[in-house]
């Protein structure tokens, strides 16, 4: 800046006969006017810049508040989503547990039914075995009770054969031939 307030205060005008040199005073005043106009323009420009910066600062503050509110809402939403997911997972786990328990109960019931059916089958099998054994035993006893149809043939051969020599292939045993004994 060309002129400072100190320059204005210390400025001395040459004295002439009629007082200060008018041209020098006019020149100085012209300089002062130019400097003050420049300062006024600069001051106005700076004020506009300050106003503009203040407006931008307000916008940034407003934006900051909006961002903060958005962050708070996002955190609340995230927490709500986490809570909903936790509840949903818990509900799903409970449903799954219940379904598994139902399936286990059904499987255990089926196993009990199979075991009961098998027990019935085992009882039937044991009964059949007992009946078959009894039937076979009675049949064997019936067979043992039948007279030997070949006993008379064996007796006739024995009587025809020499007393000290048995018939060929027939050995007497309790009055029965060896063949009859084998058939017995």
TrEMBL record:
UniProt keyword list: Cell cycle, Cell division, Coiled coil, Cytoplasm
Compartments reported by the entry: Cytoplasm
Span list, region Disordered: 158-184
A family per Pfam: DivIVA
Keyword Cytoplasm: yes
Any single GO CC term annotated in Swiss-Prot or TrEMBL for this entry: cytoplasm
Keyword Coiled coil: yes
Coiled coil: 29-106
Top-level taxon: Bacteria
GO biological process, one term: cell division
Compositional bias per record (Basic and acidic residues), positions renumbered to this chain: 162-171
Signal sequence region: none
Family: Belongs to the DivIVA family.
Protein name: Cell-division initiation protein
Species for this entry: Symbiobacterium thermophilum (strain DSM 24528 / JCM 14929 / IAM 14863 / T)
Name of encoding gene: divIVA
């Amino acid at each position: 800046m060309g002129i400072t307030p100190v320059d204005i205060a210390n400025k001395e005008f040459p004295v002439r006969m009629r007082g200060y040199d008018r041209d020098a005073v006019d020149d100085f005043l012209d300089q002062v006017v130019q400097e003050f106009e420049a300062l006024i323009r600069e001051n106005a420009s700076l004020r506009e810049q300050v106003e503009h910066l203040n407006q931008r600062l307000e916008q940034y503050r407003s934006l900051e508040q909006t961002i903060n509110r958005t962050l708070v809402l996002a955190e609340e939403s995230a927490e709500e989503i986490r809570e909903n997911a936790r509840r949903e997972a818990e509900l799903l786990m409970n449903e799954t547990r219940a379904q598994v328990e139902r399936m286990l109960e059904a499987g255990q019931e089926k196993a009990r039914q199979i075991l009961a059916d098998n027990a019935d089958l085992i009882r039937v099998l044991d009964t059949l075995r007992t009946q078959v054994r009894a039937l076979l035993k009675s049949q064997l006893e019936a067979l043992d009770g039948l007279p030997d149809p070949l006993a008379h043939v064996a007796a006739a051969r024995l009587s025809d054969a020499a007393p000290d020599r048995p018939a060929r292939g027939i050995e007497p045993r309790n009055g029965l031939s060896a063949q009859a004994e084998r058939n017995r």
